[in-house]
Amino acid sequence: MNQRALWRRASLRALAFFAIGYALGLLFGRPWIVATAALFLLLVVGTWQVYRLSHWLDDIDSPPPEASGLWGQLFNQIRLIQARNREEQGLLSGALDYLRDSLKSMRDAAVIVNTNGYVVWMNASAEQMLGLEQHGGVGSSLIELVPFSEFAKYLSAQDYHRPLRIDPKEKDDPSLLVEISTFGEGDRLVFLRDITEHFRLEKMRKDFVANVSHELRTPLTVLKGYTETLLTLDEELTGKIHKPISQMEMQVNRMEVLVRDLLWLSRIESVEPGEKTGSVNMQGLLEEVAHYLGPVWPEREIVLECSETGDVRGDFMELQSAVSNLIINALKYSDPKHPVQVKWFEGADHKLMLEVSDRGEGIAPEHLPRLTERFYRVEKSRSQQTGGTGLGLAIVKHVAAGHQAELQIESELEKGSTFRLVFANSTFNAA
Ligand code: ADP
User: Fold this and answer.
1) Which residue pairs from 3-9 have beta carbons closer than 8 angstroms and sit at least 24 positions apart in sequence?
2) Alpha carbon of 93 to those of 50, 62, 82, 83, 188: distances in Å?
3) Which end of the chain is more exposed for a tag (fewer CB within 10 A), N or C?
4) 372 CA distance to ligand 1 middle (Å)
5) Residues spanned by CATH 3.30.565.10 within the chain?
6) Selecting from 2.60.120.650, 3.30.750.24, 3.30.565.10, 1.20.120.680, what CATH number does the domain 276-431 have?
7) Going residue by residue through the chain (431 aa), what tens digit of pLDDT does each one get?
């Protein structure tokens, strides 16, 4: 029976009680009193059902009280809602267990901290990494458990777009990678990964490249000296070997540039962003670069547009090498008819931007993601002709990272390219 019919039946029953009471009352000459007594009886029955309902709600897991009509329907509905809730609860707690199990079994340390930075939960890897007994860290401040100043700064800065890498300060310190995501009302899930081995290998690679480049410098200088001397000799004396010697000189020069760029890259990689405390006036730097490139590219025009006068916190030499690489690339890979545009301005979100645009050959989209890799070239033969080493954009990328700037590249084939360095607000110095 549907709800409406049940309500109709209950109303009719109340009416019938009243009518029968009233009719019986007529027999005794007190119709209103007997009718009211009949309605009171109905009220007592209702109160009894409410009592049974409240008794059942105290122990909701027991079967509902037996009842028919409207009360039976009500008990049944409550039982159905209860069953549905229980099913949803089961599903939710299953999902929660599943999530917790997956976090528990992770090799990375996973920690949940509340808005105030206190640990709410952590997995076994976190306890092990932080040297804690079981559940020893719950309730503690995570900043105290991970006592690195850069971590404290990162956790409180609330900007978790990029992961944080904590490099070892002492020989036996670990190297950590930290990733944080926020959820709920300010709670945070913190992942800590031990990358000490990765850091050690990376350091070995950097040291190796730096050492090899350094060691190559002396033999190269000797070779260069000899080829130059040979080329100054009378052609009659050198005769047939004049051409191979010229080629040797060209290749020695190329190697010299390569070694210079590799050493420069090693130096940039080894300087931490925090160590760059200089103040660089970008307008002055750009004017200087344009000034010394002018005589090298006399037929080309470099148009400078500086609408920003603020300084940038950083290293003059590094920024100069990044800017030079971008401008030289624009000159190398563009049509000599068009000037190269260099802009220094304040862009979106008050971020300072350096933009180098050319109307040159452009770069196909599939090359863009790999462009800043060492030795990656779009067309090997052409960049060798232009004297490139394939390290220019790798240098730009590392200089950008060291100055908390992002390198953005936009390019369209046959139309040209724009290379943009977008500096984070924290890189500014008050002018
Ligand atoms: P390279 O020394 O070969 O110029 P880079 O690292 O500076 O090395 O650049 C990598 C490659 O990116 C270049 O070989 C070239 O193919 C491409 N490239 C860089 N800048 C531009 C540009 N402005 N226009 C077109 N292609 C470019």
Assistant:
1) 3/73, 6/69, 6/70, 6/73, 7/70, 9/69, 9/70
2) 33, 22, 16, 15, 21
3) C
4) 9
5) 276-431
6) 3.30.565.10
7) 677 888 888 888 889 988 999 999 998 888 999 999 988 998 998 899 899 889 888 888 888 888 888 888 888 888 899 889 999 999 999 998 888 888 888 888 999 999 999 999 898 899 888 888 766 788 999 999 988 889 999 998 888 988 999 988 887 888 999 999 999 888 999 999 999 999 899 889 989 999 999 999 999 999 999 999 988 887 777 778 888 888 999 999 999 999 999 999 998 988 776 677 789 999 999 999 999 999 999 999 999 999 988 788 999 999 999 999 999 999 999 988 999 999 999 988 889 999 999 999 999 999 999 999 999 988 765 556 667 788 999 999 999 999 989 999 999 999 999 999 999 876 666 44
Q: State how far the Cα of 111 lies from the Cα of 100, in Å rounded to an integer.
A: 11
**Protein residue with least CA distance to atom 8, ligand 1:** 390
- How much distance in Å is there from the Cα of 4 to the middle of ligand 1? 79
Has domain 106-194 been given CATH number 3.30.390.10? no
Closest protein CA for atom 11 of ligand 1 = 377
Query: Hey, what are 305's tokens?
Result: 């547009």
Alpha helix segments (H runs only) across 108-241: 124-129, 142-145, 149-157, 196-232, 235-238
Which CATH architecture describes the domain 199-270? Orthogonal Bundle (1.10)
Sign of CA dihedral 20, 23, 27, 30: positive
Q: DSSP label at 66?
A: P
CATH 1.10.287.130 range(s) for the chain read: 199-270
Please state the atom number of ligand 1 nearest to the C-alpha of residue 390. Answer: 8
Tokens of 298: 């006399």
Q: How far is the CA of 333 from the centre of ligand 1 (A)?
A: 7
Instruction: Provide CATH 3.30.450.20 ranges for the chain.
Output: 106-194
Contact predicate 157/149, CB 8 Å = no
